[in-house]
Amino acid sequence: MGFVELLEVASMPIIQVLLISALGALMATRYFDHLLSSDIRKALNKIVFFIFTPSLIFASFAKSVSLEDMISWWFMPVNVGLTFLIGGIIGWILVKLLKPNLKVEGLIIAACSSGNMGNLPIVIIPAICDEKGGPFGARDVCRNNALSYASFSMALGGIFIWTYTFQTIKSRSLKFKALEAAEIIKVPNKEFDANAETLLLKDNDSQNSIEVPTSTYVCDTENQIPVDQGQSSVSKKTESLWHRIVEVSSQFLEELMSPPAIATFFGFLFGAVAWLRNLIIGDNAPLHVIQDSLQLLGNGTIPCITLLLGGNLTQGLKSSTIKPLTLISIIIGRLFLLPVIGLFIVKAAANFGLLPVDPLFQYVLVMQYAMPPAMNISTMAQLFDVGNEECSVILLWTYSAAAIALTAWSTFLLWLLS
Fold this sequence. Notes:
two-stranded antiparallel sheet, 16 helices
């Protein structure tokens, strides 16, 4: 295929996403009587999360995934972990270079490390198979494989997002609130340790003071910095570490019990066990109506997700204090630098024979590095009530830039793998 044909194949899914997202954005405005208002988006998001997405994942996995496939996909969890690790390092470097307000530190690291592993891959990757002249084989086989890869990517991304990213945003949000409460937010961040998040605001005759739960910490009168008295520091640190381990473990287990993760598990189970598969897959299967019903529900996932994407991005039109240099740095780090590193990693793994021979699998692995930030970051910012407007602005501009970046990367990968 020539460059123009590859560009057309790569750009069509992106254009589809842009058109439907634009419709979602308009539906969230007064011109459509706020048809996609904040409350409606939250309700629709719950339906997508609890009903549509699990149905799509189960129907896809049960139909197209076998035990041999599961074993051959072992590199995908490693690849997703590397996207978070390398992206987190890039975000940390940007924070050190740009020295932004503590309010957006966690957002910068999260935006660079946490890619959209679920919504966009489920929309874009199967759509590549629908285009005529695609390099990944027969349309039906390609689409089933693409949905399976994208669904597995969604499940893995959700686990990493609700553990690593959640803790990244939470720790810096608590620290920011503590320093804001103590009215010492302008002091350089390096002068504070992790114990700063224990500071609480207490209003006393219009004067703010720091209330310390025990006598373990006192304040330095010059810089208003908590100082460890050393009486029970070891036990306190041990308890704090144990508390964090328990908290992360519980969050990890909670993510494993989410509907998409449960659907992934049962989809794998029904795909791997022949007699279970024969119960629901095929025209002669006694319970094939279950598979047909789940496929029908799953068909609503992609349009709803894309409409929600456009509706959520409208929040980024609000004003914020985030600097243009910060936005440009995030876009370069997330959409250009990270995919270049990912391409070398995937090609090296392929050369060493660590990947399946399916070129679509390699395409998905590289595209995982090129995805814009996960929309769940906005949910976490709302949860901790820190940097909501800044998060919306970051998402708006990164997704706007992703329209060009994803098209370019997809075209290049189609040329490279075809």
